[in-house]
Design goal:
Helices cover 82% and strands 0% of the residues. The protein has four helices and no strands.
Length: 100
């Protein structure tokens, strides 16, 4: 009788596990839909240009981090990090609130 219970528990456990996976897949699909909705934000041309410049500056700084980290030059890594933070164009250029 105990062996029948074990054989009944195993399929039940597998069924519950598969339901959990389906639930997680559904949550991922909902999150993806939400992200797609959020990415449709319209920026005015000035802010869009500043954002592009800032992302380019950050990317350039990040690319210069790779060899500094690989060589263990931690002082240079710290300097690059400070330069990246100091190059935040949006923070520098957008000092007053924009009218909506």
């Amino acid at each position: 009788m105990n062996s029948y219970r074990i054989f009944a528990i195993i399929p039940f456990t597998l069924f519950i596990a598969s339901c959990s996976d389906l639930h997680l897949t559904h949550e991922k699909a909902e999150a993806k839909t939400h992200i797609e909705q959020v990415t449709q934000i319209q920026l005015d041309d000035e802010i869009h240009e500043l954002l592009q410049q800032e992302m380019q500056a950050i990317q350039t700084g990040m690319m210069s981090l790779v060899p500094a980290i690989a060589s263990g030059d931690w002082e240079k890594v710290a300097d690059i990090g400070k330069n990246i933070e100091g190059s935040y164009l949006l923070k520098q250029k957008l000092t007053t609130p924009r009218p909506t």
